[in-house]
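Researcher: Go.
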Amino acid sequence: MPRFKPESTTLQPERAILVGVDTGSSEWSLDESLAELGRLVETDGGEVVASVSQKLDVPVARTFVGSGKAEEIAQMAKGMDADVVVFDDELTPSQQSNLEHIMGSHVKVIDRTALILDIFAAHATTKEGRLQVQLAQANYLLPRLRGMWSHLVGEQTRGGIGSRFGQGESQLEVDRRLVRKRISILTQELKNLSTQRSTQSKARWESGVYRVALVGYTNAGKSTLLNQVTGSAVYVKDELFATLDPTTRAVELEEGRKITITDTVGFIQKLPTLLVESFKSTLAEVVNADLILKVVDVSDPHAAKELSVVDEILKEIAADRIRSVVVYNKCDLLDGEELQQLRLRFPDAVFISATEGKGIRGLLYRIAQEAGRGDVTMTVEVPYGKGLLMNMLHERCQVIHEEYHEGGLRATAKVPERLVGTFGPYRLDSGAKTL
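Model: Structure:
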């Protein structure tokens, strides 16, 4: 028999209590919103042990929930040995400070914004992604510094010797300066990276590459779709925000035209404004796209609401005017009759199963149709010395007929509108037909 009982080194998940207020103003029911909050907690490595709700016309200014409810939650947290209380909406700095005082030092109080920021911090892998999360965290932290130093600020209010130079206030100001400086540095670094991204984006535009962006609610299957279409190996996992960093891959359509497809960060209801602002350089891939594919998990009972969230965020980043196609994914999880009903309701949508590869060919055909809008049919003769132009003809255009002549390659092709000027000097036909 061993002298000492070995202690487990396995990290225990933090025990979380969820709190939500039903004001009746949201498209989502409180139960639906709290269920999603629970999934976020699990994604961040926690375990939900209880949920608490309260019906109010508006949240209480001091403690978000009523004072009696806050005391009830504090007792529940103590009795259930909870580590953290997570509120479904963003708390003001004063609300958070007041709630922390009620809950006691052994229980953390956070809101949905802090939880999402923590998940993003864990999942961001590229330099740009990490900088974006750090900027959002710093902006979130700045107005909450006073609460963090309240125990020291309190010493200053007692008066007496040395009260004019209160330790808390001086430390608070030092920290504010440090955070502001950090925000300034991060903003400048992101600005530099954004400039690089804009240069790359401009180069793709000038080269005539047709750009497709995948957007959708988190966990809708965008990364799986990208892998299926391009044969790449983007990280995929059945959890919220499995991938944050944009990934762009090239694919050649059957007609010979090359396009790029970019997978972007997933959206979610109540996505913190701080994150939308910080990720604007990443979301520029969406804003600069020629076509947006809105990927929807058709098996999710909240599919319509999730699509509405996607539309709202696209409007927020001024991408709502870009041509788009709704792509209903995970159709393998529906029976034949359900699928048929959806096809009748949404005749312009595309239905696929990215996991099983069903409907992918039809989706690529639809992309080709969209890419061909505005194409100009023209006959050109490209000199043999213009190798770059010949590559552009074969990769960016749809060649209908070609033959080699003494003067160069003579071809009739459907040319993207943005490349008409490039091939204009080599045109042979007197007129051109726009599709």
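Model: Residues 72 and 361 are 56 Å apart (CA to CA).
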